[in-house]
């Protein structure tokens, strides 16, 4: 019944974006391979090339394959079988990747948790996944200080962040921090070294004929209350994202380097900043703990060709001045994702890049963990503010009226919906939320409702992101868009950054509150505050004027470096 509707939908998508891709790029089938097999395909042919670097220590593909095999043997010695869920509470370390690929090799599922998550969040996640096996970084031992009897956990493997460091650094790490971390549940915690010594007869790993829809990874949605959703991603999701990356990254060649700042427990970090690059020959420089204040030092030291990050990270870079005559001519792509990039910040970053010899400009990427982070990319296609570019090959985008399945015409703002082989299988043990996010439309395709607002330009077919649907403020019946207010305030010469949130009002229902951070060389004075207020009144409609101006030294951020809107709202 859906055949003609599907054909009509495909033709509409082709009319919009078909010219950007070859026929082969649009019609290549998703590979029937596991995450490990995609990595192995490249590794086995380039054994002596470097795959990752960790504090100056290089790991070749040969070494990675050897260590992954040892890790897989030890996993099976513990009794881990196909579809078992293995929890990984690790930052960007070689061990995190070894476990990730070894779990894939034995057909199990990696469940990533942020190492800075609270004990409540970790406890809830372990219960939801019924995970029996936990790999945890030493700095997070204290987060496991709860009653394990309420979980299915049988084995905990503790890993030091210094395990793969050069000897002198490993020793220094132990003296500075490593010796301080106390192990709860000592009887259940095994060291990484002891784990690798576990041996069993190597058995043939049983593989399904078609692994594309097999669950492979669980990533956690953002949550500050201890209740997060487990996003279940398949081998096919990762295989499709790998194909998208190869298509988009023109000019990226084996031997290039990527600065892997985005964390392994985040879709943007795991898929696009680590797995895809090293599976196509790009060496990943693993950064387990990132400091925005020394970002320029990292760039100067490693001379990467690709850098992916969130807007706040690049904002910090524009304010850094640690390296004189910093040369960024090495950069091929610098991509901002994970949060919206304002036009004023985009201009600041581009000015900084130009001043330091870079030939590229910052590009925006759009996606969410539910579609493995990357769905729409603007890699030098269009420099217009807010333009996030075009969907990847085999990915379709439609704009619908909020809270409905009705598609709006081009140029009209609505909710961004995604149909793609990168879209998740669903939320773990949460059918209601899965059905809200993944909806079958009248065209017969399943669409991910993102909760983000945007539109398609009727002339050039570029996609524009505006803001989160939930951030829209309805004040006295008017729709007020925080992103528009932020854009105006950030255009003031004294403002470094601004975030606008809605706060309750007795008769207007909700009003705008502007949280403002000034540039370092501007003093917070009554005269300056009046200037910013006047600037808003001149450039915004009266119903958009902020009701409250909050001047502060910094803006609160989530564990992933995004602006914490919820915290700003809760301050009222």
Tell me what you see in this structure.
- The chain has 572 residues and is α/β, with parallel strands linked by helices.
- It has three domains: 206 residues, Rossmann fold, CATH 3.40.50; 199 residues, 3-Layer(aba) Sandwich (Rossmann fold); 99 residues, GMP Synthetase, Chain A, domain 3, CATH 3.30.300.30.
- Helix content is 31%, strand content 24%.
- It is built from 17 helices and 27 strands.
- The strands form four sheets. Strands 1, 2, 10, 11, 12, 13, 14, 15, 16, 17, 18, 20, 21 and 22 form a 14-stranded mixed sheet that branches.
- α9 crosses α10 and α12 crosses α13.
- The longest helix has 17 residues.
- It is globular and about 75 Å long.
- The model has no long low-confidence stretch (mean pLDDT 90).
Secondary-structure blueprint of this entry?
Layout: H1 3-17, H2 23-27, H3 35-43, E1 50-54, E2 57-60, H4 61-77, E3 85-89, H5 94-105, E4 109-112, H6 119-129, E5 133-137, E6 155-159, H7 167-176, E7 189-191, H8 192-197, E8 215-220, E9 230-234, H9 235-248, E10 257-260, H10 267-278, E11 283-286, H11 295-302, E12 306-309, H12 311-319, E13 333-336, H13 343-355, E14 362-366, E15 376-378, E16 387-391, E17 396-400, E18 414-419, E19 426-427, H14 431-437, E20 438-440, E21 446-456, E22 463-468, E23 473-475, E24 478-480, H15 482-490, E25 495-505, E26 509-518, H16 526-539, E27 548-551, H17 565-570
Parallel strand pairs: 1-11, 3-4, 3-5, 4-8, 5-6, 6-7, 10-11, 10-12, 12-13, 13-14, 26-27
Antiparallel strand pairs: 1-2, 8-9, 9-19, 14-15, 15-16, 16-22, 17-18, 18-21, 20-21, 21-22, 23-24, 25-26
Helix pairs in contact: 3-5, 4-5, 9-10, 12-13
